[in-house]
């Protein structure tokens, strides 16, 4: 189609007011026009610093469908828990309105890897749900009596792109407190099972369900001061799975990133379900390896990328709701809903396939 070939695919915008127009531009480009956009700060553009240009280039390359980095072990198929059989990795998060907002919808996001064994490209789906609801409602649902939902759609997309059915599922779930573990696991695992069963009879790939927690007050310090990085923090890749962890449950602290300033905060991973029967060492190695594949930078990050991407997608979706404004810091205003109308949840506009 000649029109499709000549259609604008990438829009680079230098914003005069970065906080006031960013959300509107993203919503229009991604839900109405189907154009990949990259916004730049005018003061940074004028400086012309190489590091800023490199960071923008990283974002543009990924948005255009490229990969910025691939693990050498992925190429040689030597990553435990991942490269021995077709594996799909999910990340999920729910973002809630700011404190004091009584009726704003929560936004859920689920992302999934779309290439194997590289695991560098992800697809995301977002949906709105009830105020302060932590369980993701649209993982599996019936629409006009037909099976649908986030998990089913992402599994189908994985098969279309790789021509393989996932034989293993790894699910990283962000934003769950310890008091919600059992409730979230029960409902969301049930949705995952139902979604898989609708694709093929007896299709029940084993699932490893991991909760990712960053909001805690635990800090780690080396016994030997010689075993630190340049900032004085523990070395990246440090794992703690004894002493301060639960005596009977499967959890561990992982500091996957190199600290730049201040004291590094490790991420606490809780394995609520492990049907794949991973050893602690193998799952820790996989999680640490994935932290080097984050597309926006050339360093390892502190949170496993699937959960990181889901968090970003959930916050981005707040721009899509008409009448919602969002500042650069991430705070957002309430949806146009009253206390008596909390049951009504505004549908998010569909993101164009070309984005």
From TrEMBL:
Domain Piwi: 10-322
One Gene Ontology molecular-function label: nucleic acid binding
Pfam family, one: Piwi
CDD domains per record: Piwi_ago-like
GO aspect biological process, one term: regulatory ncRNA-mediated gene silencing
Positions of transmembrane segments: none
Keyword Cell wall biogenesis/degradation part of the UniProt annotation: no
Entry keyword annotation includes Coiled coil: no
SUPFAM superfamilies reported in the protein's UniProt record: Ribonuclease H-like
Gene3D superfamilies: 3.40.50.2300, Ribonuclease H-like superfamily/Ribonuclease H (3.30.420.10)
Cross-referenced InterPro entries: Piwi, Piwi_ago-like, RNaseH-like_sf, RNaseH_sf
Entry keywords, A to Z: RNA-mediated gene silencing, Translation regulation
Membership in a protein family: Belongs to the argonaute family. Ago subfamily.
PANTHER family found in the cross-reference section: EUKARYOTIC TRANSLATION INITIATION FACTOR 2C (PTHR22891)
Name of this chain's protein: Argonaute family protein
């Amino acid at each position: 189609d000649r029109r499709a070939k000549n259609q604008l695919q990438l829009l680079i915008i230098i914003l005069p007011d970065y906080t006031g127009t960013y959300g509107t531009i993203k919503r229009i480009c991604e839900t109405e026009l189907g154009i990949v956009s990259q916004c730049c700060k005018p003061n940074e553009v004028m400086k012309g610093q190489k590091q800023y240009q490199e960071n923008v280039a990283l974002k543009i390359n990924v948005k255009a469908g490229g990969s910025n980095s691939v693990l050498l072990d992925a190429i040689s198929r030597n990553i435990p828990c991942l490269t021995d059989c077709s594996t799909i990795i999910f990340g999920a998060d729910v973002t809630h309105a700011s404190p004091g907002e009584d009726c704003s919808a929560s936004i859920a996001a689920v992302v999934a890897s779309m290439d194997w064994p590289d695991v560098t490209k992800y697809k995301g789906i977002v949906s709105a749900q009830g105020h302060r609801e932590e369980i993701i409602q649209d993982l599996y649902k019936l629409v006009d009596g037909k099976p649908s939902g986030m998990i089913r759609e992402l599994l189908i997309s994985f098969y279309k792109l790789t021509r393989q059915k996932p034989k293993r599922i790894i699910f990283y779930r962000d934003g769950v407190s310890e008091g919600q573990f059992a409730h979230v696991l029960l409902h969301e695992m049930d949705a995952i099972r139902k979604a898989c069963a609708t694709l093929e009879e007896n299709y029940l790939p084993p699932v490893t369900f991991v909760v990712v927690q960053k909001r805690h007050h635990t800090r780690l310090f080396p016994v030997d001061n010689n075993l630190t990085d340049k900032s004085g923090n523990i070395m990246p890749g440090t794992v703690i799975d004894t002493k301060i962890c639960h005596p009977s449950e499967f959890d561990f602290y992982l500091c996957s990133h190199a600290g730049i300033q201040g004291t590094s905060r490790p991420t606490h991973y809780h394995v609520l379900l492990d049907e794949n029967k991973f050893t602690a060492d193998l799952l820790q190695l996989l999680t640490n390896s994935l932290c080097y594949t984050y597309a926006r930078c050339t360093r390892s990050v502190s949170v496993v990328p699937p959960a990181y991407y889901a968090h970003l997608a959930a916050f981005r979706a707040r721009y899509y709701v008409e009448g919602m404004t969002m500042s650069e810091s991430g705070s957002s205003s309430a949806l146009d809903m009253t206390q008596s109308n909390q049951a009504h949840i505004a549908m998010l506009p569909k993101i164009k396939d070309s984005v």
